[in-house]
Amino acid sequence: MANLIDGKKIAAKVREELKSRIDKLKKKGITPGLGVVLVGDDPASISYVTGKERACAELGMFSRETRLPAEITQEELLALIASMNEDPQLHGILVQLPLPRHIDEQKIIMAIDPKKDVDGFHPVNAGKMLLGQDCYLPCTPNGILKLLEESGVETGGAEVVVLGRSNIVGKPVANLLFRKANPGNSTVTICHTATRDLKAHTLRADILIVAAGRARTVTGDMVKEGAVVIDVGVNRIPDDSKKRGYRLEGDVDFSSVSEKASLITPVPGGVGPMTITMLLFNTVAAAEKSV
Ligand code: GUN
């Protein structure tokens, strides 16, 4: 049976370290501030944004949420971002994705000042990451690296298989893991919806990172004995026995996979708390740079 990678506990440790940096900044009269933009009323997005703002408050950081109706025009959203770029109270800006279909997501991301792009989604930061230059790293991939590091998982020389090729998780986490660095130095395979024999790849993985966006994409028969499994998925499964009417499941079939894996992240309580923590980390770094 696999041991759990406790994302909440590791997140708490990183937040503790951040706390002292925040206190130092506050002594200089600077409160790290995050501006959050939420367009529309998607329940999952509301829940993520609430979690991010709560985490800011817990560490004594400032956050300001701007909630906009789904009908807002692209021009109005661009004008809001322009004003946030100029706002000295905000060291970081986060526009929760996905955006409504009539808004060009790339255009919005490109309007954010790269110096305030604490998501690490702006092409300047994405490009710098690819080139190995100093930049804001995207939160979920960086959180995954931290989970592996804190759990004592050796990435050097490891066979890593990533399921999913999104800009937010798959592409950047693959990049960070094959970089000449520690953590890093892995041999990385990226699998996606056009991959022919998924199982042939996943069975070779020492470290399997699953960001496929679909529940139970990985079952126990697809996992090598002793593998480390990182489950990035968050799926709402209808469940009448729950007060909310649903339960959360990752992209991994937890019961069969945990019989094969040596270490596995639970959902919830694995990757999620680390994503939020790395967002705070980037926001504190942005505030430090403003001094
Ligand atoms: N939607 C899903 N994940 C993320 C994230 O990390 N940042 C933002 N802004 N939107 C998201």
UniProtKB/TrEMBL annotation:
Chain ranges of the Tetrahydrofolate dehydrogenase/cyclohydrolase catalytic domain: 5-119
Q: In which pathway does it act?
A: One-carbon metabolism; tetrahydrofolate interconversion
Gene Ontology terms, MF aspect: methenyltetrahydrofolate cyclohydrolase activity; methylenetetrahydrofolate dehydrogenase (NADP+) activity
The protein's UniProt keywords, in alphabetical order, are: Amino-acid biosynthesis, Histidine biosynthesis, Hydrolase, Methionine biosynthesis, Multifunctional enzyme, NADP, One-carbon metabolism, Oxidoreductase, Purine biosynthesis
Residues the entry annotates as binding NADP(+)? 164-166, 234
Start and end of every Tetrahydrofolate dehydrogenase/cyclohydrolase NAD(P)-binding domain? Answer: 138-290
Q: Which reaction does it catalyse?
A: (6R)-5,10-methenyltetrahydrofolate + H2O = (6R)-10-formyltetrahydrofolate + H(+); (6R)-5,10-methylene-5,6,7,8-tetrahydrofolate + NADP(+) = (6R)-5,10-methenyltetrahydrofolate + NADPH
Give the source's domain of life in one word: Bacteria
A single GO BP annotation from the record?
A: tetrahydrofolate interconversion
Q: Function, please?
A: Catalyzes the oxidation of 5,10-methylenetetrahydrofolate to 5,10-methenyltetrahydrofolate and then the hydrolysis of 5,10-methenyltetrahydrofolate to 10-formyltetrahydrofolate.
- Which HAMAP family would you find in this protein's record? THF_DHG_CYH
Per its UniProt record, what PANTHER family does this chain match? C-1-TETRAHYDROFOLATE SYNTHASE, CYTOPLASMIC (PTHR48099:SF5), C-1-TETRAHYDROFOLATE SYNTHASE, CYTOPLASMIC-RELATED (PTHR48099)
Quaternary structure and interacting proteins, as annotated:
Homodimer.
- Can you name this protein? Bifunctional protein FolD
Q: Which gene encodes it?
A: folD
